[in-house]
Amino acid sequence: MVAPSLSVRKKSSVKPQPKRVICPHCGASVHPSTVSRHIRQAKAPQDPSQLAIPNLSPPVTPNPLQPATPSPSQSAVSSPSQSAIPSPSQSAIPSPSQSAVSSSLQSAVPSPSQPVTPSHSREAIPSPTPSSSHSATPSPSHPPSQPQPPDPSALPAGPSVDLNEESEENQENQEWIDILGDDNRMLPVIERTGLMDEPTTPPLYRQPTLEEFDADTMLKEIADLQAARIRLSAITPESPEFTSIKAYKLQMEINLGHNAFHKLRRTFPELPLPSLKVLHCEMKQLSGGLSFVRYDMCLASCMAFTGKYARLSRCMYCRHPRRCPNGKPYKQFHYLPFLPQIQSLYANTTSAHMMRYRAEHQDDNLHRSDERISDVYDSKLYRRLRQSYVTVDGKQLDRKYFSDPRDVFVGCMTDGFQVFKRAKHTAWPIILLNMNLDPAIRYQWENVICIGLIPGPKKPKSFNSFMWVYAEEMVQAAQGVPTYDAEADGMFDLHVYGPLGSGDMPAVASALTCTKNHNAKHPCRFCRIEGVPIVNSSNRIHYVPMKRPAGYPANPLTTNNLATIPHDEFITRAKLVDAAPTVKDRQELQQQFGINCTPVLSRLPGICFPYSFPLDFMHLLENLLKNYTKLLSGDFKGIKNGRETYIFSDKVWKEIGTATVTANATIPSSFGRRIPNIAEDRTFFTAEAYVVWFTLYAPILLRNRFSRPKYYKHFSLLINIINRLLSFVSTRAERDILRADIVKWYEEYEDIFYQYDPARLPTCLITVHTWLHLVDLMEQSGPLWGYWCWVMERYCSRLLRAVTSRKHPYTSLNRRILETQTLLAIRNTFNLHDALPRYTLAYDPHTTTGWEAEEDGPYSDIKLHGPRRVIRLDPSEFASLRNRIAVYLMTRNHLSNRASVLSHLPKKISQYTKIQLKDGDTVSSVHGSNRLEENQRLATFCQYELLVDALARNRTVRPVLDGRTFFGELERVFVLRLRQNPAIKQNQDETLVLLDIHSCDTSVDTYNFFEYERHGAREIVDASALRAVVGRIRNGSKWTFVRRPGVFEHATYIYDDEDELEDD
Q1: CA-based angle 487:490:495, to the nearest 5?
Q2: Strand partners, 395
Q3: Which of 129, 250, 427, 886 pairs as cysteine with 188 (C-beta 3.0–4.6 A)?
Q4: Contact 391, 401 (CB under 8 A)
Q5: Nearest Cα to 830, choosing from 447, 486, 468?
Q6: CA–centroid distance for 601 within its chain
Q7: Is 867 exposed, middle or buried (CB count within 10 Å of its CB: 0-12, 13-18, 19+)?
Q8: Could you tell me how many helices (H) and strands (E) the chain has, helices first?
Q9: What is the reported pTM?
Q10: 263-277 pLDDT, tens per residue?
């Protein structure tokens, strides 16, 4: 299923004689050194019939923004079409050469000996510097100057080019210069120094030629299809290969090095373990040959020599040579194709069925009148694509996006992380999210598809050169790749679309959209707002207030009128930047439009700017809450109160920090990590820590601490907005209210913190402005949780643990990526999900006896965890518990004689330790066998709901039952089995799950927080009344309950028979 890794061709002292190649214009066999001259001669005839040749490549519809006539180098050689299926020796799944029926006429592929120049959809721009041998037509504003020969001593080392010689090499260099449009500054350097080189970019895949398709190939495809079925069911936990798979998994999990692994084999020779090299070869074979495709890159990570840069011999930015003196590249970018990894998901029936989740649920909310949004499938972007035909490089295909239930929807995500704490070495992994999966498993690390890591030590200057590889494979994936579907038991054309990308603002601007950073004059990629700097200041950062200070030009935009830049206008602006004739013009356009160049990802089918690259809500939250904390503590860039008084005093701020640390012991660990002292140390505050503190701790700790009530109301509105933005489901009415609340909060923010003072402009950051676009992003791109970067942060932390060498850290990272994806490919291919768990347990799990009800029973949403303990109710120590059980049964069965009920109670009950709600919280019991630890965080308090008779004092009227919220501490959870007994009105055998709760006398304060000062009575409650686990924060003599949002809605009670409510 995986294409073989093609090694980069190296230079040698003896240059081999190249083979003759076929001219793509006339079909003649020519020498590679004369191909450019031959093409120019072939273009001379005007009769099109003289140039007609058999061509299997589909015609490309020209883009109106591109020049109609391609450059000579673009005409000289054609771009290879690629496929993601391996050869038969690598996988039992048929390769493209065997899939004659599905992919025989996709494209023509040049000979392997023929130089391959990748094609681009971006327009070619002329060289801004005219020279004697290849000068452009001068414009009136730039008169031509007499070219001077360069000083040889001033040129860097490298192959020299005689600019005064009309040689074929210079002409070919000029043809290649014509399509370099990413950085006009380096074009004169490239011309003078001759940085061109032969193309060495390895193709990702190879498409079969027309001669390879014959009857024997078709028959072999059928035979290989049958072999694939046998192979995919060959490995089981009893197979010999499974031992090697487990050893490979263990070696990866514990970072077992080469020497340590061989010491293990020598110490225990009876273990059937191969050598580490043989083990890796076996795993590569089992994964279908999954391996890296390597591309040369700059030693300083400036750029990769791919696409239109494939023939450069030096870096365009730092001029460092591409290769060592021995011909080997200094550094390489390791790319792991995603198509083979996705194909492995269709290789077994389990994952193939899971991949159909998108097709089964994409229409769940399509016809709802409330315009409900619960996943990315409900976004306008996705629904527009479903109604549109697929367009690849300007050519419209005869099918629509996601028309096949097996089409795959992926989202690209990237971010940089620091490899070492003290050394400034960065790495940029690129991952794909499989949007075809259920959201419950979509963001787990084993379902993340990693396609490579851009190594440091520095941030790349040309992300386009690295992302070109991903764009090329995505274009091929949109055209279709033959794949075996285990559930349908047949071959089909797999189509993969990536219309979504995400990351923090710097990552998206640099790697995905090629826009200006967040401090530029036009920092917002969603609207046309223009930033303003502080006048008469050395600070060059631009800020984006909606209402500008006095003396500044008025802002034509308002909070309710933020027009979005459409896709066509964005592409037009990017093309204008690329076509700038001079460096100065280019810089002016970049500043005017906020775009550096045309992003290579604009080639991806289905991409629509700007909503294909929505904002990452995780980083927005972290940035805003961090700055909000600094504003309240008076540490924000030296900005103090001004005309307001929102800053806390040092004494109050220290009290808040101390109360935060104290509250950790009474907040369940399921609510989040322990929060450090926010007043003293925020060094280790992560995005999770800020979100937990602001949404759970701060609303209680900041009560009655502000100098004016309006500050707390403003803060409470922010927390309410955050909770609604984090909700899993939203309707049109809810989003309209949310949009109005965000506008209200933003206007209050500017009034309190900005105060329309030019010196306070640093409070108007782009991270605050973008909150005005969040509701639009929910509607256009899907819910915010669908593409936030929590999964990216977790994946980076997993990679960071794999660094075992400070000298070669990126080798360790690449090895971990390959090992992880290889293991996941094997796991998916051979359906070993249960046999290969996510983690290898270090110890045998503690055997506990739990209890779980039937799926259709009243307790289907409840699970009890052991250890189980049988309690006899006869001893006097349990007399109080027996009485409470009797009172519960009297209320339940409408009885009045307690003695009769006590006499018919069972003698034993089964007590458990914890109770867990389905897909929800777990509540521990006080009398369960919980281990007491020093830093234990209590999770014994819970919220439950009971039906209460509002007219209980009046026994002569019909009861009016109403659901009310209660809080208490869970002391016991047990199972009571009742036999049929007419004496207590028990008409059938029944099993009850009951909770013994010590209730709290709660009250509601002015801010709608539930609090209590003392406990109430103990009572028995049915387990179906349990709602959630809660935490507590002490405030003086009272305790305030901490509740997570989203799980506290009141239950809806439906009565089948009203007669059941009547008294006996």
Answers
A1: 85
A2: 392
A3: 129
A4: no
A5: 486
A6: 17
A7: middle
A8: 30, 26
A9: 0.78
A10: 888 898 888 888 888
